[in-house]
Each structure stands twice: as C-alpha cells, then as structure tokens.
Amino acid sequence: MENKEVMEKIVSLCKRRGFIFQSSEIYGGLASAWDYGPLGVELKRNVKEAWWKSVVHTREDVVGLDASILMSPKVWDASGHTENFHDDKVDCRYCKKRFRSDQLEERDCKTREKCDFTEARAFNLMFKTHLGPVEDEKAVTYLRPETAQGIFVNFKNVLDSTHRKLPLGIAQIGKSFRNEITPGNFTFRTREFEQMEIEYFTHPDQAEACHQQWIDERFQWYLDLGMTKDRLRLRKHPDDELAHYAKGCSDIEYEFPFGWSELEGIANRTDFDLKQHAQFSGEKLQYHDQVAGEKYFPFVIEPSGGVDRATLAFLVDAYHEEEVEGRSRVSLRLSPKLAPIKVAVLPLLKKNVDLVELARRIKKDLQKDIVCVYDDTAAIGKLYRRQDEVGTCFCVTVDVDSLEDGQVTVRERDSMKQERISVEGLKEYLMSKL
C-alpha cells in the first residue's frame, strides 16, 4: 500500500469513527485547524496522562505547573522571540502559494518549471492580540509560542513554595500558538497545538550526563507504549543546526507515511533562559546551594514534545489492515494505556430483554473501574469490526448461554482469541489483562 493511501485511510477513519474532525467544517473548514471528537479526546487525554505519570507521578525530582497562555510582552523580549522568532518566506507569482525559503525543494507547486519567486520576507510567527478595550501599542501582547517561558518565569516561585533542591524538573502540558505559513500533514503541523514540556534544572557540571539520561528515558517512553522500534530513531543536531543558546540537542523522530519527522526534541539549553530573565526583570534567579556554599545559574535540559504529534504517531503506528476470511479487517492496535475504550459489552440479541438486562448490569459494574461502552446497534460481527477499528481492547459478548451458566465470551482485539469467563470473575480478568 502506498504511503499516501495509508495516510488517507487514517484520516478517513478519524473522521468516520469520531477521532478528529475538520474545524468549522459546516462553514467550509478552517485550514490546519482540527477538533478532537469523542474518541480522539479520550486518546489524546490518555497520551497526556501517560506522559504525566511517567515524568511527574513516578519521579521525586519533577513537579507540575500550568502557566497562563497570556504573559507580559517583556517575557518575549527577554526570550528573544520578539526580535528573532520569524521565518523567511517567498511567494510564487505563478501559483500564488507561499513557501519557506529554506524548503523550496519540498514545495507542492502546480508547475515547478514556472515558479517565479518574490524576494524573501520575514514573517513573525507569534499571534498578536490586545489586552483591554483599547487596541493600541501599549495593549499589545502575544499568544505564547511555547510553554517553556512560563516555566522559566516561575522558577523562583516553585523553589520558594516547594522548598525543593536541585536537580529539579518542572513539567507542563499546554496550548501554544505559532502563525505557521505552511502548516499541513493532518494534525502534524498546525497553528494551534499542545505541548508536553519539561525544564529540568541542574548543576552545570551535571548537565551533559543529565541530557543523555533524558534522551534515553524519553525514547523508551514511546517504546513502552507500544510504538514500533523500527519506526523510531534519534537524530543528533549538527552544530550548525543548534539554537544559539543550546549546547546540544537530539530529536526523537518517527517514520510517518509522509516521511521521518520530529516527535520530540531534548535540548541542553545551558543557563541562557534564567540569565535573560534575570537581566530583563531585575530578579535574582540564581540558585543558592547552601550545603556547597555556591550560587549559580542552573543549566536546563528540555525534553519538549507535541501532544498532537504523539497522538498522530500512535494512531499511525497502531493502524493495521489484514484479510480475514476474504474480508478486509482494520484494527487499531493501541496499547491498553492509550486505547480510548478498553471494553465493549455486546448483547448477542437486543430483543431478548433478559440478555440486555444482564449486559447492561455487567457494563454498569465494569465502568466503575474500566472505560467501557455498551452497544447493541448491529449484528455481532459488525459490532466486533466497529470496536476493532477504534482500538477497543476487549469485547464481552453476552449470549443466551450466559443466562444459564453465568459465563460470557471475551474476545481479544489483536488475536481475535475468544475465551469463556464467569461474570463474577470478569472484572478481575479484564483488569489483569489491561
């Protein structure tokens, strides 16, 4: 199957089954803006919860933060975004499209031979807005282009309120906004997106070892959630690609149908950010190590990944199509930790009142501890295919025999293996599998 065809099938599945919709679709849609439907919001939430559990709840050296999207414009002056956060763009006079000047070889143009480009111009990537009722220069502010700066400006607050010692990480999940000129590839590159970001503050002498540790841990996270190892790789940035403040950076990349692309970057940002904010704000942001009798600006290791990109990668990686008894079978082989629905309870005959009552009672009991659904809207074979297609881990079928022997049929998604389990032991069985 061609890569383009695979991507088209995944996009179609996302729309058909309620994972992802085009934003404002009834008005013709808004380019590169997407809404997560009932199943998509569950999958995306599970990705974020798996990340939070991994980097915050199971560690003693990381705490959480949720900073405001709107910040003082001085924050962006100090970070360098106001002056430097732009892309050089050119317009094609022939096809009327706009391209980044450093990506002209990758352009999607009607007729490359007739391209006639304008001179490159700088486009600021930050969304500008105004605070208050008067739209003048004094009221100008920006929607944040990254979540990192909210962490840096709260570094002192977190230390003072938690009495923590270094090394210490501060984690945040939140929306960011970049006025990309050429977004695309479904949800991979959008103007509004969500980041999962950690700023890990450590002594300069420990920064390099710490950087490698985070690279290893973040790469393993994707594998632990079932991502195919052969579709993942690490790419170390050459010196001429590094940001001016960075001492090193490695990207975790995934092989999408449209090519290898970044999921997450892990950078050694040195002490640039805290020094900048100390200079621009006048606040003392050095860390005082009272035991060692030392004051210093910590180095920062930054693992920064995209929620939307990770969600898309898990969808692509889980997509599986095969022939079963002469028919095409599509399934999403998602990790149980990520699957939007863990269990579907299905009565074999919806007109049998006793069967339906038992099935609903089972579902009511399971839903206290397991995300599950009840469905009786089609024949059992069609219900199985529907649940396979959205990644449901197990289907529990309640049949006529269940009323006599107190057992139900449990069907596993990937192997399609079926097993009879007692109603009394069902929850324990499913939770052990999940």
Q: Spans with pLDDT under 50 lasting ≥5 residues?
A: none
Major sheet: size, sense and barrel closure?
7 strands, mixed
Question: Averaging pLDDT over every residue, what do you get?
Answer: 91
- Taking the alpha carbons of the first and last residues, their distance comes to 32 Å
So how many helices?
13
In terms of DSSP E residues, the strand content is 25-35%
- Number of spatially distinct domains: 2
Computed over alpha carbons, the radius of gyration is 25 Å
Detailed description of the structure:
By secondary structure, the chain is α+β, with helices and mostly antiparallel strands. It folds into two domains: 3-70 and 145-316, BirA Bifunctional Protein, domain 2, CATH 3.30.930.10; 341-433, Anticodon-binding domain (Rossmann fold). 32% of the residues lie in helices and 29% in strands. It is built from 13 helices and 23 strands. It has helices spanning 3-17, 38-57, 73-79, 81-84, 148-152, 155-162, 207-224, 272-281, 307-318, 353-366, 380-390, 400-405, 426-433, and strands at residues 20-22, 34-36, 62-64, 86-91, 98-100, 121-124, 127-130, 140-143, 168-177, 192-202, 232-236, 248-256, 259-268, 287-289, 294-296, 299-306, 319-324, 327-332, 343-347, 372-374, 394-398, 407-412, 418-422. The strands form seven sheets. The protein has a seven-stranded mixed sheet. β19 (343-347), α10 (353-366) and β20 form a beta-alpha-beta unit. α2 (38-57) packs across α9 (307-318) and α3 (73-79) crosses α8. The longest helix has 20 residues, at 38-57. It is globular, with a radius of gyration of 25 Å. The relative contact order is 0.11.
